[in-house]
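Practice problem: cysteine desulfurase
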Amino acid sequence: MNAIYLDHAATTPVHPEVVNAMTESLKENFGNPSSIHSFGRKARQVLDKARTIAAKSIQASEKDIVFTSGGTEADNLAITGVVDANKEKGKHIITTKIEHHATLHAVENLEKNGYEATYLDVNEQGYVDINQLKLALRQDTILVTVMMVNNETGVIQPIREIGKLLKDHQAYFHTDAVQAYGMLPIKVKELQVDLLTVSSHKINGPKGLGFLYVAPDVALHALQHGGEQERKRRPGTENMSAIIGFAEAIKLAQDERETRYQTYQAYRDKFLQILSEQDVTFSINGENGERIPSIINLSFPGANVEALLTNFDLSGVAASSGSACTAGSVEPSHVLSAMFSEESACTTNSIRFSFGLANDKANVQEAAMRVAKIVKRLTK
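Answer key — structure tokens:
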């Protein structure tokens, strides 16, 4: 029985061309980019080229790109770094109830240190309420952080509208674009975002790498102390082979973005079509919202997340609840709890399926058949 991977929102397989680029780098480019000799200069040239590739992908300047160890560090640097550098302007932060834990836990930690946070609600389609954001804005608000695409539902948030709203406010605007990057066109100046987070391993690059876009006028304090790498915003010798792999993944994602979008849309539609043809009862969480095609979150009435995931895995289908697994039990999804209620059955019967490089039409169809068989058995 062949295993089928439908959990690309968690991580993606590294693209073969990325592997080749990284392998070549490990062999040929071992210099420290901070060194002044020829080996260091060669490494610096490669690093600068990678930074330019990252910057062009969001129509930014290479000076605005900070390489990090991933999306979590980038979120923490954006949130804590900005708040710490601007604390004389105020101590109020606005975020949403559906953010990734890298954002939520960073904000919660700031609350323990004297800051005040407002957590915006979302409607049943998973959208942030712009009017609620308007009401929540205060003179002492120094940061608004709202994700671009939700990692559990794939729902696209109104980032452009929020950018317009904040244009004349002192608050900096950060967006976690980890799930959006590679699926949606991103132009930071048009969106009017001040900080933007990207992760390598979500776009078929290596794990342990990401970048943070920081607009030129943003005051930001480093979280770590050491050398003067990354314009003193993120000290530590750069992970050169991973950065080279990340740059290759970015190029591939940019070149193939529209094709991938259409392909994953076709996979999603076929998957749902087969479930319907097999008389599986399900609903789509965030069905009427604008969503990226690579993520679909389905509620199966009468089922249980743990039983579903266990049986899917035994049948060779890898999926996710999209929520945290603690001490062997799956906690109710904080995203779905915010969309519906903590008592809603959706929080404990929903599964996230996400499509990507490991899929083709045949294995998506096969996965749908296996899922249909299991759901019908468990909900009989």
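Discussion: The first strand starts at residue 4 and ends at 5. Students who identified this feature from the tokens alone can consider the problem solved.
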